[in-house]
Amino acid sequence: MRTASGTTLIHHGQMIDGTGRAPIADAALLIQDGRIAYAGPSAELPQLGPDVEKIDARGGTIMPGLVEAHFHATYFNIAALEDLDIKYPVEYVALLSSVNTRLALECGYTAARSGGCLFNVDVWLKKAIEEDLIPGPRLAASGREICSAGGLMDWNPEFRKIGMEGLVFIINGQEDARKAVRALVKDGIEWVKTYPTGDAASPDINDHHTLCMTFDEMHAVVATAHNHKLKVTGHCRATQGIKNALRAGYDTIEHGTFMDDEALELLLERNTPVIPALYFEKASIELGPEFGLPQVVIDGHQETLDGGAESARRILRAGGRLGMGGDYGFGWNPHGDYARELTFFVKDVGLTPLEVITCATKTGAEIMGRGDEFGTLEKGKLADVLVVDGDVAAHISLLENRKKFVAVMQGGVIKAGQLAPPFPTMVKREK
Ligand SMILES: [Zn+2]
């Protein structure tokens, strides 16, 4: 991805630098050739040379670009889970995904870690974004997901003759687990997404207290993935599933819904980040009836919401790490609503706006393994920056309204927001 050339100064705004430090009221951010040269009080800004482009952020907030830590570019706002298998071919899924990455960037998300994808779309999306062909967050690519036979993702009965080729590897035992990971290694992905547990969405045979993989299968996934320098995550709701994942060496935990004391202890010992993705549950409860979700499913989502909120609070209060990602891509939780997760964590879970912003920036970059490149406004880092009209520390919900974005920058280049050129030209030069 190209970076800007020249010098840009963003000044007079409040700065939230993403480290968790208190906001600086009158701050300046100096960007030199796409990287941060200074971030701090305006009063201490070093002497500037000529030819400085200036952005006046008076009345606004200067902060790091957001990181969506559980992103599904290929989930196309589905109305039912089976849509993922049967509705569209890979060609159309890829096109829809490129629309979703553009939208995510316009929503202030300058980076994203995938939580699983259809076919092998992520890897190629990432390439197109990195080569500036399409706009989108800096992406950590995942691939087809892994689940044991009969588990949460194995929802099509045999008579339908659907092999789930696009979405998931259905495995039986350690040998299958290794085989699936090795296929993903060849696909060029970075994150292996697995399904250690069920979900409220499947109340009959794979509810949120059911295990969908054995410890041995999970361990085989981790050993094979780590050997090839891939990372592993998993959909973990049931308490035992969370513990299995931590003991097997998972790199992150998705959801981490029902944590008991032992699970929390295991988590803290390993400093493993958790991505709760909780607003999804609230959206399922509120809009579920409209989408025909049965009452038993909605009740399950309520239990998940209550358990997940309690676990998230405990993790953060105990010094653990949370990433902000929202599992967007369902009809009731569509792409574009990403920042609702942040408002939800302030209003419903009880975190402070500063805590939530740190989770959504610094921790997100750490989850991607790129904490030294972006995620905070600090000297030397890439200028992935969000300039928002208004006081985000006081009104976190401003982040839900992209009309309030003055600039969304990647490497100092303005890609979206009021100051962005209307139709950025992206031309590929064949080498
Ligand atoms: Zn997900």
Layout of SSEs?
Blueprint: E1 7-15, E2 24-32, E3 35-41, E4 52-56, E5 60-64, E6 66-71, H1 83-86, H2 90-106, E7 109-114, H3 121-130, E8 138-140, E9 145-148, E10 168-171, H4 173-187, E11 191-194, H5 215-227, E12 231-236, H6 239-248, E13 253-255, H7 261-270, E14 274-275, H8 279-287, H9 295-317, H10 340-347, H11 353-367, E15 385-389, E16 405-410, E17 413-416
Parallel strand pairs: 1-4, 1-5, 6-7, 7-8, 9-10, 11-12, 12-13, 13-14
Antiparallel strand pairs: 1-2, 2-3, 5-15, 15-16, 16-17
Helix pairs in contact: 4-5, 5-6, 6-7, 8-9, 10-11
Bound molecules: zinc ion (ZN).
Task: Describe the fold and architecture.
- By secondary structure, the protein is of the alpha/beta class.
- It is built from 11 helices and 17 strands.
- It has helices spanning about 85, 90-105, 120-130, 175-185, 215-225, 240-250, 260-270, 280-285, 295-315, 340-345, 355-365; strands at about 5-15, 25-30, 35-40, 50-55, 60-65, 65-70, 110-115, 140, 145-150, 170, 190-195, 230-235, 255, 275, 385-390, 405-410, 415.
- Strands 1, 2, 3, 4, 5, 15, 16 and 17 form an 8-stranded mixed β-sheet that branches.
- Strand 2 and strand 3 form a beta hairpin.
- The longest helix has 23 residues, at about 295-315.
- The chain starts with 6 loop residues before the first strand and ends in a 15-residue tail after the last strand.
- The relative contact order is 0.16.
- Zinc ion binds next to loops.
